[in-house]
Amino acid sequence: MSDPIQKFKCIGVVGAGNMGSMMTFAFAEMGLDVSVWDVNTSNLDKLLGLVKRSGNLKGKIANFHDIDEFTKSLEGRAERKLFMFSITHGHPADSVLEKIKHDLKPGDIILDGGNENYRRTERRQKELEPLGVSWIGMGVSGGYQSARRGPSLSPGGDPNTIETVLPLLERYAAKDPKTGLPCVTNIGPGGSGHYVKMVHNGIEGGMLSTTCEAWALLHMGLGLPYDEIGRIFARWNRGGELRDTYLIQIASEICQTRKTPHGDEKGEGAGPNDGYVLDDVLDKVVQDDDNTEGTPFWTVMETASRHIAAPTIACGHFLRVASGNRDQRLRVAQKLQIPPPKPLQDIKDKEAFIETLRRAVFASYLLSFCQGLELIARASKDENWNVDLGKCIQIWRAGCIIQEEYIADMLQPILESGVQIMNIKLIDEVAAELRSNYDSLKQVVLKGTAADAYLPAMSASLEYLKYEGGTMLPTKFMEAQMDFFGAHAYDKPGVSSEDPGLVRKGAHHYEWRSA
Ligand SMILES: NC(=O)C1=CN([C@@H]2O[C@H](COP(=O)(O)OP(=O)(O)OC[C@H]3O[C@@H](n4cnc5c(N)ncnc54)[C@H](OP(=O)(O)O)[C@@H]3O)[C@@H](O)[C@H]2O)C=CC1
Ligand SMILES: O=C(CO)[C@H](O)[C@H](O)COP(=O)(O)O
C-alpha cells in the first residue's frame, strides 16, 4: 500500500508533554487518528484544550489516562500497531514499556522519539525481538515548534521496520527548502539513531555556548543594546558563513522580543515599556527533562571513551553544569572575587571587531561539527553501523537546532561521496576555512580574555585548533615526566617506525632515577 496514512491509519502517542502534544497535532493534521496517553491527567487536559481551539484536523484525537484502554484503542485498525514514545528517558520509558508489553503483538512498532541513551535503546531492541516487536530509537530534533511543523528525524534499528515506517516519517519530517528532500533517513542498526541524535545535541551544546559567549561580548563587551544585537544577528543570518543558521536566527528574535501580555500567559508586559523577556531570564541552565544533563553529558562521556577530542562540546557542557548550580556558584564567587567581565578595551573599529566575532563564531560552530562528526564516524566504525555522515548532514538541513546552511553546503557533497572520513579537518575545504578563520578566533579570545569575558567554547576551539594541528606539542615534556615516574616509555623523533608511528606505547625507557 503506497499511502502511509492508509497503511497505519492510527498511532499511539505516549506522553502529552511539550513534544508529544505537538506530535499529536502533527499526526492528526496528516490524517492519522491519534490515541494519546499520559501518566498525568493535567497534560491531557491541556492538550484537550488546545484540540478544542484548533480546527482543520484530518484525524481524530482521543485522550487516555488508562493505559490498557489506550493500547486497545489501537487494536485491529491496521496490520500493526504503531507507537510514538515521547517521555522522559531511562526508567520512565522502561516502566511504560513494561505496562504495554502484554498488549504488543508481532509486527508492532515502537518509535522512541525521546532522547535516550543508545545502550538502553539496544537493550529494549533485544528485549522485544523475541516478541517480534520492533523498537526504533529515533532522534527527534527541533523542539516543540518543529514537532508540530516537521522535525529532523534520525531513526535507527531493524532495517526492514525502518523501511516500513519511512514513508510516514518522510511525510512528517521537515523538508530541506532547497531540494524538498525530507530530513529523515535510515541511520543504521541498533542504537545508531539515538546516537546520532545524542551527538546532534552535543554539537548543539558547543554552538549554544559559542552563541551566548558572542552575545555577551556584544552586550557587555561592546555595550550594545539588545535590539542592536538582534539586528547584528539578523545580518549574520542573511548571508555568508552563518547564513540560515537556526541558532543565530532565534538569537536575533530573542534579542528583539519585548514582553507581551500573552507571552507568559500571565498578563505580564501589558504596558508598552515593560521591557525585554531576556531581562527576566536567569543565567541558570538545567536539563529540563530530568535534571541528569542527559544528551550533552552522554556525548562528553562518549568522546572520552572513544578517544575523540571534543573540547568545544565538552566546555560548552561544563559551562552549562556550572551555570545550573547557581547557589554554589554565588558562594564560590564571594570567595574568589574573580573580576567580572569589563567592556572590551582598545576596540578602535567596532564594526571590524563585530566582523571578527562573526568569523570566530563560525569557526567555533564548524569545530563543533568536526568534533561531533568525528565521534559519529568513530562509533559507527566501532559498532559496525555504517552511518553515512553525508546523510546526517542532509537530515540536519531543516527542522533541527543545528541547521547551518554554509556548513551543510560545504560538507554534504564531500561526505556523500562515499569516502570514509574519520578526521573532518583533513577535508581540504574545512581545513581552508579553519586556516582562514584562525586569526579571528584568536583575536576574539585575546580581546575577551583581557576583559575577563566568559569564553569556554571559543577558547576551547582555539586551543583545539592549535593542538590538533600542532607539530611539536608540550606533551614532549609530559611524556618525559610519565617515563620518569611510571616507566611509561617514549618514542624518539626521527625514528621512522616511531615518528609518527602507531598510536601505541613508546619503545624506550630511560632510567632517569634509580628506584
Ligand atoms: N523539548 C525538546 O525540545 C525536545 C525533547 N526531546 C525529548 O522528548 C521527550 C519528551 O520531552 P518534552 O516533551 O520536552 O518533555 P515534557 O517534560 O514536556 O514531557 C515529558 C513527558 O514524560 C512524562 N513522564 C515523566 N515521567 C514519567 C513516568 N515515570 N512514566 C510515564 N510518563 C512519564 C511526563 O509526565 P509529567 O508531566 O507527569 O512529568 C510528560 O508527559 C524527552 O525524552 C526529551 O528528551 C527531544 C527533542 C526535543
Ligand atoms: O533535544 C533537544 C533539542 O535537540 C531538546 O532541546 C532537549 O530537551 C535538550 O536536551 P538536553 O537538555 O539533553 O541538552
TrEMBL record:
Role, per record: Catalyzes the oxidative decarboxylation of 6-phosphogluconate to ribulose 5-phosphate and CO(2), with concomitant reduction of NADP to NADPH.
Organism: Elaphomyces granulatus
Family statement drawn from the similarity comment of this UniProt entry: Belongs to the 6-phosphogluconate dehydrogenase family.
Domain 6-phosphogluconate dehydrogenase C-terminal, residue spans: 193-513
Keyword NADP carried by entry: yes
InterPro entries, per the entry: 6-PGluconate_DH-like_C_sf, 6PGD_dom2, 6PGDH_C, 6PGDH_Gnd/GntZ, 6PGDH_NADP-bd, NAD(P)-bd_dom_sf, Pgluconate_DH
Name of this chain's protein: 6-phosphogluconate dehydrogenase, decarboxylating
Pathway note: Carbohydrate degradation; pentose phosphate pathway; D-ribulose 5-phosphate from D-glucose 6-phosphate (oxidative stage): step 3/3
Key words, A-Z: Gluconate utilization, NADP, Oxidoreductase, Pentose shunt
Catalytic site positions: 197 (proton acceptor), 204 (proton donor)
